[in-house]
């Protein structure tokens, strides 16, 4: 009797497993792909602007930015070119545009012609004069001289970055010969500092 019950139980379990094994599922279907729909709906909510959307920066915004930067560069280049012209040294005057001026070196007793792309110091030295100097960069007064024609020394020379003489000293006719390029005829006493 007990064995029959156990057999019946075992058989029903086996049958259940077999039935489950062969039973067909309800069939799973993936839900509808709504990603495109969601994207379109989101796109519709974006406000229309004249500016490129963030995702378009590489197309529009980036290009615009580059153009803007390019424009700024252009302006900068223009400014720099202007600055270059302003800061152009008389030493850069090309040979075919050079003018010559007569300079009397009073203490040396010599009068020579010096090109306007050459300093008063260089011009004298090229003619064999032994003139005082130290830095040759307008940063000391070793090469100072006094233009004796009267008036401001800058009526006769252009100083290319002299850093030592103040306006009053220039007014008195003093010059730094190492950075002074002639723009007129004049007489100069070298070795004369204010
Ligand atoms: S040598 Fe120094 S300023 Fe001329």
From TrEMBL:
SUPFAM superfamilies: 2Fe-2S ferredoxin-like. One of its GO terms (molecular function) is 2 iron, 2 sulfur cluster binding. Keywords: 2Fe-2S, Electron transport, Iron, Iron-sulfur, Metal-binding, Transport. Pfam families: Fer2. Its cofactor is [2Fe-2S] cluster. InterPro entries: 2Fe-2S_ferredoxin-like_sf (IPR036010), 2Fe-2S_ferredoxin-type (IPR001041), Beta-grasp_dom_sf (IPR012675). Residues 101-194 form the 2Fe-2S ferredoxin-type domain. Gene3D superfamilies: 3.10.20.30. PANTHER family: FERREDOXIN, FERREDOXIN-2, CHLOROPLASTIC. Belongs to the 2Fe2S plant-type ferredoxin family. This is 2Fe-2S iron-sulfur cluster-binding protein. It comes from Natronocalculus amylovorans.
């Amino acid at each position: 009797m007990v064995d029959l019950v156990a057999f019946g139980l075992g058989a029903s379990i086996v049958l259940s497993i077999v039935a489950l094994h062969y039973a067909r599922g309800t069939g799973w279907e993936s839900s509808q792909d709504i990603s495109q729909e969601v994207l379109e709906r989101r796109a519709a909510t974006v406000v229309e602007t004249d500016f490129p959307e963030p995702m378009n920066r590489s197309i529009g915004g980036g290009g615009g930015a580059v153009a803007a930067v390019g424009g700024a560069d252009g302006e900068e280049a223009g400014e720099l070119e202007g600055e270059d012209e302003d800061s152009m040294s008389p030493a850069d005057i090309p040979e075919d545009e050079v003018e010559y001026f007569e300079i009397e070196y009073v203490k040396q007793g010599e009068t020579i012609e010096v090109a306007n792309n050459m300093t008063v110091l260089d011009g004298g030295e090229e003619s064999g004069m032994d003139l005082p100097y130290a830095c040759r960069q307008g940063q000391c007064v070793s090469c100072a001289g006094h233009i004796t024609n009267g008036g401001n020394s800058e009526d006769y020379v252009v100083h290319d970055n002299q850093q030592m003489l103040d306006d009053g000293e220039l007014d008195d006719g003093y010059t730094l010969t190492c950075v002074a390029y002639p723009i007129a005829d004049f007489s100069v006493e070298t070795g004369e500092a204010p």
